[in-house]
């Protein structure tokens, strides 16, 4: 799953109609609805303000609106582009100023989809990587030797070292790598190591432009 890297607004002109696409990152369904309402207010004089959003992963909320365009010609193709790009926590509004030439159902469907695709390309995508902070303890009189084994390793980074009766070493790594990190520690330190989960979070990793 991916998120957009930055909020963008793009413009597409087709047969004298202007299509302004506003693409925003959101955290909740309410935030998406507020953004749609704000854009409708800003572009109150437009012919249509069609919208689509996807919020969350599990559970996941999806909604779309044709806002007066023929049924299925705007909101649905917009939402489908978001799905195809595997996006979430995103809302898009395509504002149309009618130019006097009708595009037909097929033309509308293609244009609304293209408008969203171009906005996503302008924004760029980021992959969300599941990460975690994990801790293990070690005798203080041996912690210097242990840290020499830990710094500069590609599987994880040393986030912090806390000193009490024992040293608590806190590592950050991808959640998918936790078992490999545990194995590495046990092998390199020649003693069984058990990692305690402290915090789970997601880190954003921008993709190359070619992927968007």
TrEMBL record:
Span of domain Impact N-terminal: 15-120
Name the UniProt record assigns to this protein: YigZ family protein
Taxonomic path: Bacteria, Bacillati, Bacillota, Negativicutes, Acidaminococcales
SUPFAM superfamilies: Ribosomal protein S5 domain 2-like
Protein family membership: Belongs to the IMPACT family.
Gene Ontology BP annotations: regulation of translational initiation
Stored Pfam families: Impact_N
GO CC annotations, alphabetized: cytoplasm
Domain of life: Bacteria
InterPro entries tied to this protein: Impact, Impact_N, Impact_N_sf, Ribosomal_Su5_D2-typ_SF, UPF0029_Impact_CS
Origin species: Acidaminococcus intestini
């Amino acid at each position: 799953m991916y998120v957009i890297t930055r909020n963008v607004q793009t413009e597409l002109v087709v047969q004298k109609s202007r299509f302004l696409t506003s693409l925003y990152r959101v955290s909740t369904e309410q935030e998406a609805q507020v953004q749609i309402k704000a854009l409708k207010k800003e572009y109150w004089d437009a012919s249509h303000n069609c919208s689509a959003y996807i919020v969350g992963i599990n559970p996941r909320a999806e909604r779309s609106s044709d806002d007066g365009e023929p049924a299925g010609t705007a909101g649905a193709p917009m939402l489908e582009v978001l799905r195809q790009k595997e996006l979430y926590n995103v809302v898009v509004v395509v504002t149309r100023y009618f130019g006097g030439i009708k595009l037909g159902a097929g033309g509308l469907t293609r244009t609304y989809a293209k408008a969203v695709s171009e906005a996503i390309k302008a924004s760029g995508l980021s992959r969300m990587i599941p990460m975690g902070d994990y801790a293990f303890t070690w005798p203080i009189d041996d912690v210097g030797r242990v840290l020499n084994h830990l710094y500069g390793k590609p599987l994880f980074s040393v986030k912090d070292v806390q000193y009490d009766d024992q040293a608590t070493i806190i590592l950050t790594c991808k959640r998918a790598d936790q078992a490999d990190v545990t194995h590495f520690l046990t092998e390199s330190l020649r003693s069984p190591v058990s990692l305690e989960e402290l915090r789970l979070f997601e880190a954003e990793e921008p993709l190359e432009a070619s992927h968007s």
